[in-house]
Amino acid sequence: MSLRNSSSSAASADGSAFPWILEHLLAYPGSYEIPLRTMYTLNSAPQGQHYPRHSIRPDTPSLCSSNGSSPDSTPASPNFPLEQQQQLVAQNTTEHFKSCLMTHISNLPSQPFSLPPSFITSFVRRCFTADLCAVDFTQALTALDYLKDLESRRKRELTLALQRLGVEKDAVCQTGEEIMKKYPRVAEWIDGMQDKERKVEALYTQVYIGLRRWTLINEMRLEPFSKANSIAMLNTLYPPATSSPPTRQLTSAILASQRNAFFRYIQAVEKNGKGILKNLEHQGERAGDSNGWTVVREVVDKYLRTANGIVEECQEITSPQSLDPASPEYHRAERRSDSGISFASADRPST
After folding, report:
1. In whole angstroms, what is the distance from residue 162 CA to residue 189 CA?
2. Cross-strand partners of 54
3. How many CB atoms lie within 10 A of CB 15?
4. With contact defined as beta carbons under 8 Å apart, do 111 and 4 qualify?
């Protein structure tokens, strides 16, 4: 049943469809992809408190801004009645969750199937700049969603290219045997693409871990420190449970270890101060670098170039003749030998 029909629209307007949507979401959690920004809002909603916070890094925007209210008029004020605070917390929790969930699901049919890779690349590079002080962490969750979209697009384009070659991705050796005998270059192309896929997946694994580390570092460094907001960000980036790992390298055990480690850092910052974050900031740094961000940013850029190269290469495949030098179709396509990226042993993912 479409959310766009008249009865559904009326139900959405008065909120009567919300229990059904919530029940369906809980029953089929793998059916919906809630954006990280929306998920962070939902994770933060139970707190019902919004403090003006400022990054200690110059030129780095704050994740939150002041609402301009007087100190005594906010639930955070000591003069605000406790009973009203509790009522507001409960009300805000319900309204935040209802509003965010209804808005997102109602907009699903109008969302594009996939964003253009060129747009994703430009957005991610502008968000995660080479200069750490200029990184726009206010857009980090959106950029992480876009990277996930690019990785999904890369996988989809490879599957479509294999189908145009007459090969099923999950059974390359069996279903494509006759095709590969007739077109030997198809087998060569598939072998080469499988190698590229392993390498780009390793890059995405590093991107996944590295950008989440720095997003959490930024959250914990915001002033004043908020344990509640830090935990909300942790639950957003590393949920307690995931339906499927983002890559084959990132097993459930590794994701759980990442989550537990960051939770201990949140506790340590609350107890001992932000100086302990230096350990995270210097993780993976090279000699001569001021911190580990330079390496993470280079991996992000390498992943973007490689993923875009694979998408373009797969789109050039129209049939097995696309890989046959004797075919006119081969000469019409602007073939490339590789994605223009070389991989060193140091590019292996690390956690």
Report:
1. 10
2. 223
3. 11
4. no
Closest CA to 133 of 295, 269, 294: 294
Give, to the nearest 10 degrees, the angle between helix 140-164 and helix 293-315. 30
Q: HSE, CB side, 13 Å, CA atoms: give it for residue 97.
A: 17
Kind and range of the H or E run holding 148: helix 140-164
Q: Which tens digits make up the pLDDT trace of 198-241?
A: 999 999 999 999 999 999 999 999 999 999 999 999 999 999 88
pLDDT tens-digit readout, 12-55: 444 455 555 555 555 555 555 677 877 787 777 655 444 455 54
Report if pTM > 0.85.
no
- The residues facing 223 across adjacent strands are 54
Is residue 1 within 8 Å of residue 8, measured between CB atoms?
yes
Report whether 299 contacts 206 (CB < 8 A).
yes
Residues 6+ apart with CB under 8 A from 116: none
338 φ/ψ sector (left φ>0, alpha ψ -120 to 50, else beta):
beta
- Taking alpha carbons only, the member of 55, 269, 295 closest to residue 261 is 269
Q: How far does the chain reach from its first CA to its final CA, in angstroms?
A: 43
Please say whether the beta carbons of 316 and 350 come within 8 A: no
Spatial neighbors of 164 by CB under 8 A, at least 6 apart, are: 317, 318, 319
